[in-house]
Amino acid sequence: MPELPEVETVTMGLKPVMEGHRFTHVETRRGDLRVPFPNDFAGRLTGRRVEKLWRRAKYIMGTLDDGETLVIHLGMSGRMSVHAEGGQRTLGQYVQNLAGAGTGKHDHVVMDTDAPARIVFNDHRRFGLMLLVPTDELTGHKLFRGLGVEPLSDDLDAALLKSALKGKKTPIKSALLDQRVIAGLGNIYVCEALWRARISPKRLAAKVNTDQIKRLVPAIKQVLKEAVKAGGSSLRDHKRVDGELGYFQKSFAVYDREGAPCPRCKCKVKRIVQAGRSTFYCAKCQR
DNA sequence: AGGTCAACCTGAGCGC
DNA sequence: TGCGCTCAGGTTGACC
After folding, report:
1. Among A5, A68, A197, A260, which is most exposed with the fewest C-beta within 10 angstroms?
2. Is A58 one of the catalytic residues?
3. Is residue A8 annotated as a catalytic residue, yes or no?
4. What is residue A179's predicted lDDT score, i.e. its pLDDT?
5. Rounded CA–C1' distance between A272 and C7, in angstroms
């Protein structure tokens, strides 16, 4: 499901029931996610208070009151849902009914907080993960030490991107998917950003010129901001924590639109495969 | 060193 | 209905 806008949407949805709240009960249903749960995950989480809930790249991070941080990744198909007694309008946001919550086939983790609310992690492909990492070891942790710049921060500018792409012989499409360059972009928003910046996905990263980089940086930021505002893109799996769909997919210019007209020049959108992933682009206006 | 690609899983959609 | 095939928003480790 998730790229940065979807993870941001989910994080914001979890905040009211997690931040400042304590876990009263935690249960894992099956341990064989691709990355197994840490030892006694439920026991270590129970009774802990979440001091701060935030996002880094495509990870949801919960800083706990005991010096550990809860790290959540949704993989390709992970969902988080929030349930409470009485359903809608509880807690100042829309939440789902409590009845039956956490009993689904792929509901892997059920977490109750003193909001009170029940949070369910569902992931049918099991590519997601939940870990506990000592907070003071986060920066050096394997998952985070190599991560690139946050695209929505002021740190990402033309100069930084230019130096990050310097000497890279891989296509720009693949370079932007590399989390060590920019952290949080995925297949959808890379395609969309390249279209907005009128850059061919096949162009070698090192050959993206200064003018193009100056278009690419705002294109990335704008497409992400618009998608966050729309609640992310719901293609197959993504839902907000209240079960509603994001609607940014209605705004795609090229992604998943093979054969449809390019909104700019009306040429047919092409689909190619790069590094094993679909790329959608307009061969006429992306150079 | 740096880049590509299969593998990890399940489910949905499509053609037959 | 059902089978077989392809594809899916991510990440990683094995391999050129």
Report:
1. A260
2. yes
3. no
4. 96
5. 13
pLDDT at A31: 78
Mean pLDDT of chain A: 93
Displacement of CA A70 from its chain's centroid (Å): 16
Average pLDDT over residues A131-156: 95
User: Which amino acid, one-letter code, is at A242?
Assistant: D
Q: Would you say residue A92 has pLDDT above 90? A: no
pLDDT tens profile A233-265? 988 777 888 888 889 999 999 999 999 999 999
Strands A23-28 and A107-113: antiparallel
Catalytic residue among A48, A55, A58, A173: A58
Catalytic, A2? Answer yes
* A182, pLDDT greater than 60: yes
CB-contacted nucleotides of strand B (7 Å): 2-12
0.85 cut: is pTM over it? yes
Residue A248 near residue A147, CB atoms below 8 Å: no
**Architecture category of domain A158-281 in CATH:** Orthogonal Bundle (1.10)
Q: Kindly list the domain boundaries of chain A, sorted by start residue.
A: 4-140, 158-281
Pick the closest to residue A77 from A57, A37, A107, A114 (CA basis).
Answer: A107
Q: Is the CB of A232 under 7 A from strand C?
A: yes
- A44 is a catalytic site residue: no
Q: Cβ of A166: how many Cβ atoms within 10 Å? A: 9
Could you say which architecture CATH assigns to the domain A4-140? Alpha-Beta Barrel (3.20)
